[in-house]
Amino acid sequence: MISTSPSTSFDNCSTGFLTLVTGSPFAAGSRPNAATVHPSGKFLYAANESSSDISIYTIDQTSGALTPLAGSPFAVSGACDFITFDPKGRFAYVTDNNSPGNVLGFTVNAITGALTPVAGSPFLAGNSANSVVVDATGQFVYVANYSDASISAYSIDQTTGVLTSLGAAVAIGDVPDHITIDRTGKFIITSNDGMSGPGTVSVLSVNTTTGAITPVTGSPFASGAGPSGSAVDNSNRFVITANENSGSISVFAFDANTGALTAVPGSPFAGGSEPVKVAVTPTQADVSITKTGPVSVFAGQNAVFTITVKNNDAIFDATNVIVADPTPAGLTFISNSGASTTAFPCNIGTLAPGQSATITATFNVPANFSSASTTNSASVSSDQFDPTLSNNSATATVSVSPLMLSASFSPLPFAATPITNSPITFTAAVTPASAIVTWNFGDGSPTATGAVVQHIFSTVGTYTVTTTAQIPNGAATTATLTIIVMDGAINFDLLHCTLQFGGLKGDSATLIAIMTFDPATVLIPGTPITVSIGGYSRQFVFNNTKPMKSSDGKMVTQVTGFSDGGVPVVRVFLKQFGTLKSDLVSGQPVDANGNPTSETVRIQLGGKTVAAQFKTTMKHSARTNIVLFGYSLGH
Predict the structure, then answer these.
(1) Tell me: the pLDDT tens digits for 295-313?
(2) Percent of the chain scoring above 70 in pLDDT
(3) Contact indicator for 326, 351 with CB cutoff of 8 Å
(4) Pair 403, 475: CB distance under 8 Å
(5) CA–CA dist 543, 558 (Å, integer)
(6) CA 146 to CA 591: how far, in whole Å?
(7) Residue 603, pLDDT above cutoff 50
(8) What does DSSP assign to residue 238?
(9) Which pLDDT tens digit goes with each residue over 501-552?
(10) Closest by alpha carbon to 226, among 171, 177, 280?
(11) Contact 43, 33 (CB under 8 A)
(12) Rounded to whole angstroms, what are the CA distances from 217 to 205, 221, 255?
């Protein structure tokens, strides 16, 4: 039968009192000689010597109650005497105390707790192999051979768990009943029951590189009668043995440098009837972890997480605190800062009671990341027993959005298509808005930066405009536009006019061309404008404030304040348009000789005229007659 008491029955680890859990004792095989808890705290294993099998139980994390795995106990070869695990709980080793003795190796299923023999198991040991221990690094196994008064040493294959002998067993001078290792992993300690004589304790130094062991000076050390169990306290300052034959407990001061033992005053102490084994309650440290990260990132950006670990215990230090944070699928680990600057898993050392430590972990989300989110999980562990495993892991989920970019353009409102010498507005719709947008207009001009820019093409042609959105230190994407730029000149053909004039031949006529533009921004101050009517062609600059005269004095421009809807009007006066040769011209304009003709008005404005009227004012005596010319728009 197996009896258990849960750690929750301890009075804050201050009294050590035990309370029997409901259902205890629990059924096991025949003569369970040792029971060991898996490093995860989830499973308990009992080595049943007489029935040559192993009972496996799950442990209720709240009550401590045991539930046997289906099919438990599980048969093994040999008389099971002891079971232990490597520090990571990947491999289990069981002693067979027959002669010759063996050590059995198993892999452990971390989910179910089930055991599977490793290749080559069992591995030969000495006679009556009755106890086994794994060093703190998980590299070496040591087996106590009772009948041979020796210790066998093995190395562990870190992938398979297979054992390889380190050579002949090392004699220790007495018959070992139990084997353990100090907290530093530098010394092997055995309790030797002395057969019928006084008991002893052997201490052997460990070469932590090769695993080789050598008895220390003075070993074995005298103890009470028949010590059958031994342990090292949590401070690594004392060694305790249970003396079965004398009903006592021996306590030794332990020199962690030399391995020497010295009995403390008053030792041995009364220990009840035939104490067989001794155990030191593990130090307790409830280490917890929290993890936070950004709500969302864009593909190509870094995701930065904050990981905080804390020792919630009020009494004990948490030592060898390890933080694990596997890189999520598709992401790339960049760096750690804060409590650790090394990659995961990282060791942040010791946390005092109530102390916390923070790690800032940075991962890159690649530009081609296709999932809508990524989940990052971290966990923490220490060398101490952790009574609350529910807070030993934490996750943070981050949504991932793609970098998005689209581009558009628009000529000035009066132009239907892009034209030369006229500003074109380019607009990028980009997500995120923080992305840096650059434009290459494909005409050899310098690039421009910004989500909204303007550009002027000086030459007719087809251009490929490329815009690029770049996340700082992250991804980039591009979009292209094809721009067909046309000549900015707009032609007006005067097709028809009606002239009613009662004046004399030879009178001079002044043609006033009234050109209406919409909106007002079409007339860009400082932009040259060329107007050609008949044989007259003049270029002038509109300055929006006062009339300007052309260089030859034949053309004056001004802005008038009248027009429908506030549309600005430019009047271009061309003097001496021609000499009239007849009193009445009807149906079309005439040239200087009075012959029917048509006139083409070419206006180079860098924009599109939406309305235009042309009229002549014929002056004679006190009368003014107006000739209206119809027009059509060509391009």
Answers:
(1) 988 888 899 999 999 999 8
(2) 72
(3) no
(4) yes
(5) 9
(6) 134
(7) no
(8) E
(9) 333 344 333 333 333 333 333 344 445 545 443 343 444 444 433 333 333 4
(10) 177
(11) no
(12) 10, 10, 12
The answer on pLDDT for 48 being more than 70 is yes
Cβ atoms of 484 and 462 closer than 8 Å? yes
| Interatomic CA distance for residues 16 and 417, integer angstroms | 89
User: Roughly how many angstroms between the first and final C-alpha of the chain, as a whole number?
Assistant: 104
Q: What mean pLDDT comes out for the span 46-74?
A: 90
What are the tokens at 313? Answer: 């215990």
d(CA 457, CA 442): 10
For 377, counting Cβ atoms within 10 Å of its Cβ (0-12 exposed, 13-18 middle, 19+ buried), the class is middle
Question: How confident is residue 279, by pLDDT bands cut at 50, 70 and 90?
Answer: confident
Q: What sign for the dihedral angle of Cα 535, 541, 543, 546? A: negative
Nearest to 189, CA basis, from 244, 139, 247, 239: 239
- Bridge-partner residues for 559, per DSSP? 570
- The residue type of 101 is G
DSSP-assigned states of every residue in 106-126: EEE-TTT--EEEPTT-SEE--
Tally of CA atoms within 13 A in the half-sphere of 343 that contains its CB: 6
User: Could you give phi then psi for residue 38, rounded to 5 degrees?
Assistant: -65, 145
The answer to whether residues 346 and 357 touch, using CB atoms and an 8 Å cutoff, is: no
Residue in this structure with the two tokens 């084994």, named with its chain if needed: 277
Long-range Cβ contacts of 412-416 (<8 Å, 24+ apart): 412/521, 412/522, 412/607, 413/518, 413/519, 413/521, 414/517, 414/518, 414/519, 414/522, 414/607, 414/608, 414/609, 414/610, 415/607, 415/608, 416/608
Question: Tokens standing for 297?
Answer: 């990132």
Written as one letter, the residue type at 336 is: N
Dihedral sign, Cα of residue 592, residue 593, residue 594, residue 600: negative
Task: Check: CB of residue 369 under 8 Å from CB of residue 330.
Answer: yes
Adjacent-strand bridge partners of 376: 396
Among 99-113, 273-287, 402-416, the least confident range: 402-416
d(CA 601, CA 608): 14
How many Å apart are CA 78 and CA 75, to the nearest integer?
Answer: 9
- Distance of alpha carbon 259 from alpha carbon 205, whole angstroms: 7
pLDDT at 195: 63
SS3 (DSSP) at 97? coil
Cβ neighbours around 536 below 10 Å, total: 17
**Residue 594's pLDDT band (cuts 50, 70, 90):** low
Q: How far lies 535's CA from each of 383, 538, 598, in Å?
A: 101, 10, 12
> Cα–Cα distances in Å, from 503 out to 38, 84, 251, 430, 481?
122, 128, 140, 67, 59
DSSP for residue 444: S
pLDDT of residue 539: 46
Residue 361 β-bridge partners:
305, 336
Nearest to 180 by CA among 32, 315, 34: 34
SS3 423: coil
CA separation (Å) from 563 to 473, 560, 596? Answer: 55, 8, 32
Cβ(528)–Cβ(548) below 8 Å: no
- How many angstroms separate the Cα of 479 from the Cα of each of 165, 431, 448? 67, 13, 15
| Cis ω for the linkage preceding 73 (within 30 of 0) | yes
400: tokens are 């991932």
What string of DSSP letters covers 19-43?
-PPTT-SB--SSSEEEEEE-TTSSE
Closest CA relative to residue 87, chosen from 320, 311, 324: 320
